[in-house]
Amino acid sequence: MKKVLLIFSMFLIFGIAGCTAPDNGEVSSIQGIEIINESNTRVVYVGETVQLEAKIYPEHFDQNVNWTSSNKAVAVVDEEGLVTLLAPGKVEIVATSVNHKKVSQKYAFVVENKPKEEVVPQSVTITATNGMTTCKVGEKINLTAVVNPFNASQKVEWSCSDPTIASVVRGIVTPVKEGTVTITANAKGYSDVYATIELTFEKSDNPVLTKDWPNMPFASHTEYFNADDEDPLKVKGVVVHVSPVDDAGNVNYIIQNGNRGYYVYKQSTYSFPVEVGKVYEVGGFKKNYNGLAEIVDVEYFQEIEENISYEINPFPNINPTDLNAMNEYHTSFVSGKAVLESVQVSNKAYNFYATLNGVSATFRVDPAYMSTEEFTAITNILSGAIAGVEFEFTAFVTAYGYGTPKPQIQLLSSKDIKFAAVETEVLLETALSKIQISESVSHLKDSITIPQSIPGFDNIQVKWESDNSAINPLTGQVTHGESDITVTLTLTLSADGKSVSKDFTVLVGALNNKEYHTVVEFDVDDALDGNSWGNSESKPGYKEGTVVLGTPAHTWLLRNALIAATAQDKYQDKFAIRAQAGASAAETARIEIQQDGEYNCVELLAAIYGGDAAGIQIKVEYSFDQGTTWQSTESVIIETSTLETYQFILPEGVKRIAIVVVENTGRRVNIDEIKLLK
Question: For residue 608, how many C-alpha atoms fall within 13 Å in the half-sphere facing its CB?
């Protein structure tokens, strides 16, 4: 009996605490109102109904109440307490005593869109434009795949039975040589649902001559550079560099006569095979590609028996940023010495900067111009490069940019760049500065990356030690405990009898069996459609701005971040956020919710954008006082180009959060499926 009385007493205390207290003696004997929801759920879906019941205590009082909704756009309630959910958002349903209008009780709901039911694909149909199943090498065949039924996901994965004969990208088939292949379209995620089509490719015809190329005079370098788009140009020289053959069987190359060079773009190797060291006459048409002078659409190509040599120009005493001065050497080889200022390598094309003739010049490394092995070799050299050290280079001059192009000096071979020797101590300190370790490991991760070598520093020995078995310093394996564990990893680098050391502190998060529910989801899939660049019109640029998106909709600040879905972005469904690291905390990317709530955890997907180098770091900042002051979680390093889940546990009482890219830690990162949990 005592136990029953105790429970009832506690119930009365909570009931009274949740009600509006009377301000006179009229209702002093009413102890409270209880709202009963038989399903006992607070998170509900649009289109559903929920029956609520109100009880006034003591029960001998009049039980009649008036029902009202705090937000009729989200939910409405009838006189019987039946709640109809209309739109995503938050709403409070209020029951007020009919006879004692100052006594009321609230029942809160979070209304979300109902998850879409997946429609399982049953079959796939492939059709070729104009029924075309045969073409010549150098042409293309466009395929379209339809997944049935029509309301199933239309995403398919394309593949070719022999990639040495043809490639297929988004249904566009490009043959590279004669032969027959089978193209397959697979319903994404369903390996047993697919369709195939057989295509045949024939030898290509040589281009039709539209000009009298044999009798056309040769263009000088000045005439080549100053020609208008589509002007015919005929040049001759020795081929000094050829890029790798692309999927369509085309190459780009540099042909040089004496000390002046010409750039030929996308010449078919099936019609006109080209070899380094041979001398040719070439006839094609001028194209200016954002500052780069090209000869395209080659119609005439003849190997000739003529002794033509080429010279590498010593870099002249000119300003390397002066476009007019540099144009004289456009697409020609130059050599010189410069002093490295800064470099941030990537597995895609990237620039680095060096002082040349007292001016900061732009150098470029582009994998499209060289083999994968050569690109890796150059990148390894630059990964170990030290700012302030002089280097020798041989490269060719180009220019690129919208509006007014900017001159660039482009490297083509790892043999063409050589850095001066540096002292061992400087080398070790520089290598040490290249190492990054995640400051925290959530319970979702069972390993972290611990580098056992440093690109560009092959002669340096690497040794790791750990003061706790929670992290294995050799494998990066992580063991989580019942509580958080702070681990110190000690790195020692050695070379030529000298060594340096550094401690890295890593917080290993405790095993977490708590059940969270989503309070706010921000996946940006409800953003406006993309523009011609693939960026959503809701936030197409990096400039600071706000968007009202998510479930339920909230206002979010996006600084140095945009919403996009290009071929380089990693995203789920429709869009992701692309965020940039800045040079300072005030400039770096920030994704901040603008309304207060109650949050215990932040969960998100993240991946390296495009071909950027791994190593960019993110963290969560949180505030207890509506954003007046901020504290921060430890940062994590994003190391892969595929979306992975990251989770940040927050202390009790957090009212506002911001996802921040740590300044100076990389270039760009994609972030998607942000969830604020409680």
Answer: 18
Q: Is 173 helix (H, G, I), strand (E, B) or coil?
A: strand
- Distance of CA 238 to CAs 242, 266, 292, 332, 623, Å? 11, 18, 20, 12, 66
β-strand partners of 504 = 489
Could you tell me the two tokens for 379? 């990148």
Residue 468 burial by Cβ neighbours in a 10 Å radius (0-12, 13-18, 19+): middle
Task: Answer whether 0.70 is exceeded by the pTM.
Answer: no
Sheet holding 461-466, edge to edge: 440-441, 498-508, 485-495, 461-466
Q: How far is CA 660 from CA 21, 635, 657, in A?
A: 44, 9, 10
Tokens read off for 366: 């582009």
Percentage, residues of the chain above pLDDT 90: 63
Asked if residues 487 and 512 have their Cβ atoms less than 8 Å apart, the reply is no
pLDDT reported for residue 583: 82
For position 29, what pLDDT does the model report?
67
With 0-12 CB in 10 A as exposed, 13-18 as middle and 19+ as buried, what is 500? middle
Specify the length of the chain in residues: 678
What is the SS3 assignment for 523-563?
CCCCCCCECCCCEECCCCCCCCEEEEECECCEEEEEECEEE
Contact 487, 494 (CB under 8 A): no
Mean pLDDT, the chain, integer: 89
Three-state DSSP string of 343-403: ECCECCCEEEEEEECCEEEEEEECHHHCCHHHHHHHHHHHHCCCCCCEEEEEEEEEEECCC
The DSSP element (H or E) to which 160 belongs, if any, is strand 156-160
- Inter-residue contact 481 to 500 (CB < 8 Å): no
| Burial (CB count <10 Å: 0-12, 13-18, 19+), residue 587 | middle
pLDDT score, position 650: 92
Q: 149 preceded by cis ω (within 30°)?
A: yes
| Whole-number Å distance between alpha carbons of 111 and 107 | 13
Q: Using DSSP bridges, classify how beta strands 89-97 and 485-495 pair: parallel, antiparallel or unpaired.
A: unpaired
